[in-house]
Description:
alpha+beta; 3 helices
Amino acid sequence: MDFTPEQIEQLTPLSSAWIVITKTGHTAVWEYGGSKGQTGHCQVVAGKDGRDMTPIFVTKNCLPNAQQALFPLRRGYYLIRSFRRNTGEKEHVKTYIYRVVEIHAEKERPDADIKQVGFCLNGQWDEEGIQLLQKFPMLNEAVNVAQNKVREFKCTRPMYAKPMKEAKQ
Length: 169
């Protein structure tokens, strides 16, 4: 997933997310992304209370900024997406928090309806985001990880995940 700043602007905000159906028939979504230098984008996944989760699968020897860990996806989970652009004079970071509202696993191309529940531009949160982060303090950690991940050059690892006990790689 290699996006130009113009494509990033077109990507957000979103109302749906692509999901994966696992071999066992469960819905899942990827943590992905990192920085390419002057730009970056990423997605991290958080549970209903904002906590990190154990991935189903971790990509071994993945390409930089690619799909790094696959997580189960349920209604009420959160997707945190950050986008970064550095103009040389100033860094711009946008962070969106989405809540999964509905999952459509039966479609030819499965997806999930998501609702934007928080937005941050360069450290300034909207009112909805402030209230959400106060209600679910663990979500702050997920947001911080996303904002760090979007700066991690050529990221090849999941950053908001519990360790896998039996690593399926």
